[in-house]
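Throughout our pipeline, every protein is held as a single compact record rather than as scattered files. The remainder of this section carries one protein's record, kept here as part of the documentation.

===
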Amino acid sequence: MLKRPKKLLPILLIALSIGLVACGGPKPATIDFDMLPKKKQVSSRQYLTSIQAYAMKKATIDGKADVKPVLFLDVRTRAELNFLGTPTVTDANIPFKVMSYIYNPAKKSYKLSVNPNFLFHVEDLLSKKGLPRDTAIILICRSGGRSATAANLLYSAGIKNVYTVVDGYEGDTAKAGPMRGMRVVNGWKNSGMPWTYRLKQEHIYTM
């Protein structure tokens, strides 16, 4: 069985769901962690929805004495953050993949290559913040694929307490209906979680 986070906030989940419906916004889909596609599975077996990830990080921001530090990393490209924004609780942007200007005809998009410095920068950030390697680290990407691969890399390097946000920042694509192909199923934005276009200088990736 896949491990689910122990510290959930049922009241927050209910309130958010009611708020989304009342505002006429998209209703986030329920995620069955046991049925995740292979590309979203991680060795740590630690999964979060965007709503759960926000609750987990927010508890540390609120300074609750019994809550251990949580590092929240946005692993998307700098271009994605610049044009689409980032969660307000992001501690840093460390891209797991970087964009080139080489066109990928199979995916009909520009090619993304794994950032060879990803592990180094995560370890460096932990060191600068004075955090141990067993600190809980939450990774978020566009829809849960890159964050899963990045989590597996960290896990294999001995950073075991790593979570992936399975629905990502933009969410999964609708499989049918008038919005087929659009990222409206779930995700940070579609779930009503706070985000911003204003990137903090201390959080940007400079390599």
Notes: Residues 150 and 159 are 11 Å apart (CA to CA). DSSP finds five helices and nine strands in the chain.
